[in-house]
Structure prediction request, 262 residues.
Amino acid sequence: MEIIIKKDAHEGSCAAARVIAGLVRRKPNAVIGLATGSTPLKLYNELIRLHKEEGIDFSEVTTFNLDEYIGLPAGHEQSYRRFMNENLFDHINIKTENTHVPDGMTADVSATCAAYEQAIVDAGGIDLQVLGIGSDGHVGFNEPTSSFASRTRIKTLTQQTVADNARFFDGDESKVPHHCITMGIGTIMDARMNIMLAFGANKAEAVADTVEGPVAAMMPASILQHHASAKVFIDEAAATDLKLADYYRWVYNGKPDWQKNA
Ligand code: F6R
Prediction:
């Protein structure tokens, strides 16, 4: 795992965006996995800027989002399809038909999940997956004790995640759906590269457990220790519980630019 500690969320997001831009320049038809939530917003703003000001071309890019709430239609203000349209897709030159978000309104969840997995395979697999992390260590909506072998499927959110996400639903936990469709941990681990972003003191414990703790299903993100190409972009606040923070800074600062952005 490569740990990249930046001063704040803006710098961390810009560093992550440079990695994505580098991929799209090298491979214009890249397949990119995307996340929602508050964490990737600055990353998406930077990708929009790179598209508008530096001509990064998304016209041949394909995307797959990690997850979607079950029971929220695409137009619902908290659906992840709407989030992606409003915060990224509507502002870059990606083709709508190349963007994929699980269908939270499907009548056949199992068939929809199997088709989502197949669509990823048909696209050639995910080159780079963007991840956030829940305060309980979830990635996608793979809550603690999720199988490391899991594929796209229905999951039940923990009460903590429901409470965490109530901020998007007028602070009302009763409005937060309890079920979602999420890529599995096995799906995420199949991506050729994973980049995780985590900002703020409320993520510090989960980040430390992910990076330096034991690999355990109780801390789903810790499986990234087994990924051959995983980068973790964090700010100083999220780095406070890391024992080897100085070492990670020393490693990163010693790298040539081409390696930092690879
Ligand atoms: C969202 C997702 C989740 C979030 C996590 C952190 O697509 O997969 O794992 O990344 O819940 O959410 P924020 O960024 O809102 O703290």
Q: What stands out?
A: The radius of gyration is 17 Å. Residues 35-39, 66-67, 132-134, 138-141 surround fructose -6-phosphate (CB under 6 Å). The chain has one domain: 2-250.
